[in-house]
Every structure is written in C-alpha cells, then in structure tokens.
Amino acid sequence: MMMKTRQEIKQLAKSCFQSWYWPCVGSSVLCMLVISAVGGVTFWAGGLGALLLSGPITVGLCYFFLQVCQGRAGEIQVGTPFQNAFTGYGRKLGGYLWMQLFTFLWSLLFVIPGIVKAFSYAMTPYILADCPNVKAQDALKLSMRMMAGHKGELFVFYLSFIGWGILSAFTLGILAVFYVNPYLQASLAGYYLEVRDEALRTGAVTRQELEGMPLR
User: Could you give the CA distance from residue 18 to residue 43 in angstroms, rounded to a whole number?
Assistant: First the structure.
C-alpha cells in the first residue's frame, strides 16, 4: 500500500478534526495559554517553567491529535494533553530537550543544516506520544529513520498552510485559534501515522523497536 498523498492526509485530518471540533480547539488553546502563562510569570522563573512544561505538553497534544486521527476521539477529552504530558514525564521532557539541543547545535553550522535536522527530528514528539516504551534518545533516532527521504515532502506540507497563515493574519489570529492551528495539528498527526506505517512497510523501523526494543 502506498503512502497517502498530502491532499489525502489533509482531507482525512480535516474530517476527523471537524467531527471533534470543540475538543480540538479547546485542547489547542488551553495548551497554548498554559505555556504562555507560565513563560510570562518572570523572565527567569517563567522561562524555566515554560521549558519544563512546553515539551511534555507538546507531546501530550500530539497524543491527543493522534487519537483524533485514529478515530479514538471518544476516549479523550480537553484535558487529555495534560494528563498524558505527566505520564512518563521525564522521558517526554528528555526527548524534547534532546531534539531542541541537537537542532540548535546543527544550526550553529549555518541555517540550512539546522533546518534539515529540524525536519529530520520532526516526528520525535509523535513517537514519544505514540510509543510509550521508546527511550528519549531512541525517539530521535527513529524519527531520523522515518524521515529519510521525506524531509522535503514535510517542508512542502508546511508550505501548503501558508495561505491559511495569511488569512489568519487578516483576522488578527482568530482564524488560527478556531481553525488553522487545530487543523494543522490534526494534519501533522495524520502525516506521522502515514510516515510511521511507510517506515514499517519498508523496514526502516520495526514494530519491536516502536515497542521499546533497543535499536539495532
């Protein structure tokens, strides 16, 4: 079975998102507000708090939208990203921090290597959300394998949302809050599921590795 096209992934994601519209919007907004509120307390303490929360909450939000895209929306609620964020908190925080650190280090070699690595590591939060037994650093390695040959494809995937971004700017961000952001989140979750299944089909990763077996 071939991987779905970008248009097919987005259409399916839109359908799933619209079927569970208000919980999707509510979860996205709540996560954004919590991270922004913690970051705004004070420059130092708030920055540390945002650092400690943003990664796990991001993973929790990925988990939420993975359930939506897999037809499991009935098993989740608006607070699910926060519940998930603090289940295996250290692993999720570690994986997110490793991703940010390596992306930053590659960026020091000029902008382009940093961008390439950012796309290479892009599936890390989804792997942390989808595969609870995968270790933090292994999530980065699995993301690199999954994204081999797909980095340019993901870049184009993001570009396809530029029009929505422009429209959001004209509405002072209102459209982003109530449509574009959750639509993008659902689409990226759908994209991960396709890339994961493609990697399993081609042998780039194994089911056992996604279940936490040490990487070969």
Answer: 37
Confidence (pLDDT) at 47: 62
- Please give the Cα distance from 65 to 25 (Å, whole number): 11
* Residues in contact with 200: Cβ distance below 8 Å, sequence separation at least 6, in sequence order: 206, 207, 210
Distance CA 209, CA 43 (A): 40
Can you tell me the distance from the alpha carbon of 44 to that of 189, in angstroms, rounded to the nearest whole number? 33
40 pLDDT band (50/70/90 cuts)?
low
Instruction: Please state at what angle helix 89-107 crosses helix 43-69, rounded to 10 degrees.
Output: 110
Distance of CA 212 to the CA centre of its chain: 19
Angle CA(207)–CA(195)–CA(117) in degrees, nearest 5? Answer: 105
For 50-101, the pLDDT digits (tens) are: 778 889 999 999 999 999 999 887 888 999 999 999 999 999 999 999 998 8
Q: What is the pLDDT of residues 158-209, one digit of tens each?
A: 999 999 999 999 999 999 999 999 999 999 999 999 999 999 999 999 999 9
Between the alpha carbon of residue 66 and those of residues 133, 162, 175, 186, 216, the distances in Å are 17, 23, 22, 7, 26
